[in-house]
Design brief:
The chain is an alpha/beta fold. It folds into two domains: about 1-90, so0334 like fold (2-Layer Sandwich); about 95-240, no CATH class. The protein is about 10% helix and about 20% strand. It is built from five helices and twelve strands. It has helices at about 40-45, 95, 100, 165-170, 180-185, and strands at about 15-20, 50-55, 60, 75-80, 85-90, 105, 115, 150-155, 160-165, 195, 205, 235-240. The strands form three sheets. Strands 6-7-11-10-9-8-12 form a seven-stranded mixed β-sheet. A three-stranded parallel β-sheet has the order 1-2-4. A hairpin with a 5-residue loop joins strand 8 (about 150-155) and strand 9 (about 160-165). It is elongated. GO terms for molecular function: carbon-oxygen lyase activity, acting on polysaccharides. Keywords: Secreted, Signal.
């Protein structure tokens, strides 16, 4: 169980301040405390040096790029409202809010394998690489198509879901490394609850099967295996 963020008390920086509220705001409003904006993306684009953007409590399902800069003397500040907790979640909100409608059993897959009810082909939209970073080694080995594009975690504990490179690993019953890479490619290696993205269909596959290794003890996963039935604290948060 990982510690979850908590609201903190404090004071806002001096200077002009604008407000964003994901539930009560409207981006056509002036962004004041009484009439806040709705989206973080809109709010960040209005900021100038020395100004503060105050986020009211709630979850912001947005992928935000910061395009404004402050100065050493007049920094730009983005902060939660004192005593409130604002969460920026760039994930796919349907998996957290409506898991029963987001997953369905996958016919012909492994026991306990589910697949997303929608297709997310856009997750594979990538520009051709112009340079390779030291950690981006997949293209060098000709396995760029195995690079995980979808990741996630259990929403209530922040424990990550494993990002599987191959469907063989996701579906494996084996949990031991017992050969060379070629052998393991055929047998697969199950590493616990996780996901695999099918680039051909755009569907996300998930499997929450229990661990079988006795040596894991109380660290073995023993939670719900049907992602549609997970309690709110165990629901899957999915992002790319």
């Amino acid at each position: 169980m990982r510690p979850l963020p908590k609201a903190v008390t404090g004071t806002l920086p001096e200077g002009p301040a604008y407000y964003v509220d994901p539930s009560k705001g409207d981006d056509t409003q002036p962004g004041t405390r009484e009439k806040p904006w709705k989206s973080l993306k809109h709010g960040t684009r209005q900021l100038k040096a020395g100004e503060t953007l105050v986020l009211r409590a709630g979850t912001y399902y947005e992928r935000v790029s910061l395009t404004r800069s402050g100065t050493e003397e007049k920094p730009i500040t983005i902060t939660s409202h004192p005593g409130e907790l604002a969460v920026i979640d760039g994930g796919l909100r349907e998996f957290l809010e409506e898991p029963a409608k987001s997953w369905e059993p996958f016919a012909g897959g492994a026991e306990g394998e589910y697949v997303s009810t929608k297709s997310y082909l856009h997750l594979d939209d990538r520009k051709p690489p112009r340079q390779f970073l030291p950690a981006s080694w997949e293209p060098m080995w000709g396995i760029e198509d195995e690079r995980p594009l979808v990741l996630g975690n259990f929403a209530g504990s922040m424990v990550p879901l494993h990002g599987y490179r191959t469907v063989a690993d996701l579906r494996a019953t084996n949990e031991l490394w017992k050969g060379d890479k070629k052998d393991m490619r055929d047998d697969g290696l199950y590493c616990g609850p996780g996901m695999w993205f099918n680039r051909e269909t755009g569907r996300i596959h998930i499997r929450l099967a229990h661990h079988q290794l006795e040596g894991l003890g109380d660290r073995a996963y023993r939670g719900e295996t049907d992602p549609r039935k997970t309690a709110s604290r165990d629901r899957s948060r999915i992002w790319r």
